[in-house]
Amino acid sequence: SRPATLGSQPPGFAGMPHRLETFHSVAEGYRGEVLIRWGDSLGGQPPTRFPISSEEQRDRFGYNNDFIAYSPLDQQAANGTEHRASNNSQHGLLSINHENCYPHLMFPGFKNRFDAEGLTNDEQVKSSIYSVGHSVIEVEKINNQWRVIDNSPYQRRITPFTAIEITGPAAGSERLKTSKENTGRQVLGTLGNCAGGKTPWGTVLIAEENFSEFFGLDPAHIANIPDRELTNHRRFAVEEEGGFWARVDPRFDVTNEPHEMNRFGWMVEYNPYDPDSIPQKRTALGRFEHEGATLVCKEGQPVVAYSGDDAEHQYLYRFVSEKAYREGDHQHNQYLLESGTLYCAVFNEDGTGQWLPLLYGQGPLTAENGFYNQADVLIDTRLAAQLLGATKMDRPEDVETNPHTDRTYVALTKNKHKLSANAANPKVQNPAGHIVEILPPGVDGQRDHSQHYFSWDLLLLGGSDQTGAKPQGLYGGQLEEGGWFANPDNIAFDARGRLWIASDGCQSFGFADGLWCTATVGEERAKPRHFFSCPTGAELCGPEFTPDGKTLFAAVQHPATDYQSRYDQPSTRWPDFDAAIPPRPSIVAITKDNGGLIGD
Ligand code: FEO
Ligand code: CA
Ligand code: CA
Ligand code: CA
């Protein structure tokens, strides 16, 4: 009965009230079934015992699942030929990030979450190293029920010890060489794998976000670090107390290997269909605390990748490829992210904005400011963007483009440490976060993301009337009970153009993190409804739809991270609820009872 504006479909389910429970819940008419859990084999079999040994963990599903990519499989794919045109929604691969590890919930003996420096047992340290990175599993839906396929030829773990190539303009830089690796083109592992992205040529992008938390700095040997690298490392807040992994691998102490940390903070691209493919760090997309990178690809036009730097007062970026995207030409497309130009965003007070290029030799990006080549600009992306005058943001998380309207959305999770506001980050104290809408030039459905100017608007602010965080009128009317949330993090669009928002931090507002859904245009713009609620202590990550829109995969990350929780006294033992099994980060497959479209 509503006018059919592009992407204006509102959610059709009844929103849930806020919850705070030991278990997860999903809106009426849907079910959310646990698919795979931390410590399971990549075929879905449980571990033999807890705590999990380093030898077992090396090949098993990792901790703190975050980003999820669904890649369809079909008969041809199984034969190793062509798979990329498929939209098979019953059978595919799930590529899943494992952002970090929480030793106090993985091993006995810790006082609390902030006691991780007490990790002095080498076996536990190794197990924790193997628990992060990335997993690929094969999944299949039979009778509206998903299962993990055992002994899949595609299954794969990527860990901090996996061989990875460094490509693009910074590859080979002196600043990427170490005492163990003198080409600056190879690195062991990927770290802090938070969100990511997918390409239409079948590869998966995984982001390196909070990589510095795995490194430490030994104050006794600080003189070993060249001044420029010390400044660079401190820009990522590397801590003297951090770096317990250096106990078993000295490269994680930056006073030992001053360049090792420069080899992290990139976007990584790999082909999930080829379990032997070597992942590649794409330095053209810059080095910062990448939340993810999401693409806009149009035939014959450059590929545009949006990426947030998730730290307080940091910036939003856009990469524009040098070469054009050619649909179906995998040989050509697989190198598109190797060369192009990186831009940082300026949000003007009047609702307009610009993208400023980060190019060596232009403006302040010269030797005078410590930039001697383009590799320096990319390694020190944060400094370059600051010098160019990019707009300081309230922690840019996931960025997604609505396929119906071609408008782009940026989740800004929060920023408690501000002394002033700007129009795109309008709250001086912003504990609840907000979402910004970017409108590249053009009309809905046909916008040009490679132009260097745009207009922007606020979609919504986190918080509620009750907390005083919601300005009048922004939501366009009253929200239903349970309809407000805080701290948007991962976002996704469904087949009807509805925006799905996963939260990370609602528990400080008195209710569990979860998933909300809203239209972004039309009468129901910015009127979220509550769809999924996490067990206590968890944040929600992932949200990833199958191409048919009938399954939504969600990642429940760090259940039981409430302040006092620890291994032998967690606030929930989700999802096993067995006194012998600690809480386990897990993937949930959500389907509709009647097999229909999620959200209708
Ligand atoms: Fe790992 Fe920005 O969330
Ligand atoms: Ca995130
Ligand atoms: Ca997303
Ligand atoms: Ca998060």
Automatic annotation (TrEMBL):
This is dTDP-glucose 4,6-dehydratase. InterPro entries: PhoX. It comes from Oceanicoccus sagamiensis.
